[in-house]
Amino acid sequence: MITSTNSNQIKNIIALNKKARERKAQRLFVVEGIRAVAEVPGELLTAVFCVEGFENSPEGRSFIKEILDKAPDVVIEEVATNVFKAMSDTVTPQGVLALVKMQEFTLEDVLGIKQAKPAHLVILETLQDPGNMGTIIRTAEGAGATGVIINSTSVDLYSPKVVRSTMGSIFRVPHIIVQDLAGVIKELENQYGVAVYAAHLKGYRYYDEMDFTGPSAFMIGNEGNGLSDEISELATSYLKIPMEGQLESLNASVAASLLMYETHRQRKNR
Amino acid sequence: MITSTNSNQIKNIIALNKKARERKAQRLFVVEGIRAVAEVPGELLTAVFCVEGFENSPEGRSFIKEILDKAPDVVIEEVATNVFKAMSDTVTPQGVLALVKMQEFTLEDVLGIKQAKPAHLVILETLQDPGNMGTIIRTAEGAGATGVIINSTSVDLYSPKVVRSTMGSIFRVPHIIVQDLAGVIKELENQYGVAVYAAHLKGYRYYDEMDFTGPSAFMIGNEGNGLSDEISELATSYLKIPMEGQLESLNASVAASLLMYETHRQRKNR
Fold it and tell me: If you measure CA to CA, which chain A residue comes closest to B209?
């Protein structure tokens, strides 16, 4: 049992929870909670840490069995209660935490090329709120989006709060983080024939009167400032979402959700 | 200028920021930020607190003018920087904060009866996340909902985080907080002819294939547990939102937004 927060493993978990730089360098991140760890694909699980006593509880036994079924070689470590508390990013830790490898997706994965689906993408520019980002990944799964493209000045996708609010979708929705967002948008338009839409004051057509059955990508900007001029100027088309009252904008995750579900509606075969 | 955090006014602001009980007893809450305070209707403004120096900045002068135009009798207090920091609920205070009266809405306000619109309601049962609640109020304005009904075990609508995330919609969307949610739902159905919908596993019809042009209310449950059995059993009809992948549910504010915007779409006159 690990009984000291001075253990290198524990210090590393704490660093990975706190620092995007460490996560990026090691290509590892932390997933916390019984249900969340149960959703991690076996091949990505590196180590699982359980608070002392958990492994011998009925819930713990079935959890460990489930983990070993999908990841027979995973390291399982027992950790003293106070050490677990120090490792945890949550106020009321559930007593289970895993060290997880980042997946490596390509632009073609995000475009859904292997699934032979028309691209259905969300592009996030400098999104700052972890809850918004997590919710967008989660809704992307629900709406059947092919993937998400995130620029490198957005909040880190692998931060504990984002991971939590994806509710496991982070493992199922292809995503890439890109330095040169403008370059990628041009590539989407010119090489892959994707129509890239910006919700924008310049938009004169309502989103639900447009056709998203072909390859489509929706750009969502920063919560306070929206899309930058540089990026919104690259849009293939502008669109607008109707708003009553005196509202100036919708929450970023709400706007993304309406666009993704409109796309889902247009493409559905029920 | 107020220079001490021992001032009764300051102690009261801090209490109002921290305690739902105080807000409820005094029927007052705190709104923070230049833009947010500018959106408070004049008749609700009780006092405005500005950090020292703000009133003499160019931005401060035009802000004070705007406040006095709409609320000529409002008390404006200057506050020392350290005191302002202690009063503020935010990490980087903007230097403006107001003490605001709660509005008193009736069930008829929430139903939109005076505007002669068919009711378009959201009913929140034990919603816990302040960001979700604020986002739902904000989207309700955008989608032209007539009002929001919140049960008393939900997160407090007047908590600083909820108020912030409504982006001013809290002043424009009629809302009531009710003890007996079951009783209110029965009243909506039996006295006002409102169809009350629950997104539920029992739902077999997709939300976008149903008719929400008549008086409609959408029930949204707790983030972890959904609607209680007691409340979901009162629904006039169940509905479902399609979900791809392995997702079990959507975020509460996303589900509410899709339902409100579907209603908006069906009722629109463009």
Answer: A265
